[in-house]
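Long-time lurker, first post. I've been practising inverse folding by hand and with some scripts of my own, and I keep getting stuck on stretches where the C-alpha cells seem ambiguous. Below is the full C-alpha cell string for one chain I'm working on. Before anyone asks, I'm not after the true native sequence, just a reasonable design that respects the backbone. If someone could post their per-position residues I'd love to compare against what I wrote down in my notebook.
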C-alpha cells in the first residue's frame, strides 16, 4: 500500500510540475491544484495514520496524531482560495489581453484571437 501511495504522489507531482510549465493559464491552475493534492497526500503519508484509533491521547495506548489531519484541512482551504484567486486573475488577464497566455503576448504567427 505504501508503494501505491508513493507512486500516486510521484505521478501527481510530476503531472503538476509539467502543467505548471505550460504557456496557457488554465493548465497552470490545474497543475497547481494537482501539486496541492500531492502535498496533501504526502502530509497524510507522513502522519502515520492508524485505523480505528481515537484522535486524542487518552485511555488507549494507540492513538492517531491529529496534526496531519489539521494540516491537510488547512491546506485544502488555502488551496481552494488560491485556485479561486488564480481563476479570477486569469479571467482578468484574458479580458485585458484577449488571450490566455501566461505572459500576455500572442504566439508569433497567430492572428491574436485565440478564443477557439
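-- Answer (accepted) --
I ran through it position by position. Result:
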Amino acid at each position: 500500500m505504501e508503494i501505491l501511495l508513493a507512486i500516486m504522489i510521484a505521478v501527481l507531482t510530476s503531472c503538476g510540475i509539467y502543467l505548471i510549465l505550460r504557456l496557457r493559464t488554465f493548465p497552470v491552475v490545474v497543475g497547481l491544484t494537482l501539486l496541492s493534492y500531492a502535498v496533501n497526500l504526502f502530509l497524510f503519508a507522513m502522519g502515520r495514520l492508524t485505523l480505528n484509533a481515537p484522535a486524542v491521547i487518552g485511555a488507549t495506548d494507540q492513538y492517531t496524531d491529529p496534526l496531519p489531519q489539521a494540516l491537510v484541512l488547512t491546506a485544502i482551504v488555502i488551496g481552494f482560495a488560491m485556485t479561486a484567486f488564480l481563476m479570477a486573475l486569469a479571467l482578468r488577464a484574458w479580458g485585458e489581453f484577449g488571450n490566455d497566455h501566461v505572459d500576455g503576448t500572442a504566439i508569433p504567427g497567430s492572428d491574436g484571437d485565440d478564443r477557439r
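A couple of notes from the structure itself: The chain has a mean pLDDT of 83. Residues 40 and 75 are 7 Å apart (CA to CA). Happy to go over any region you disagree with.
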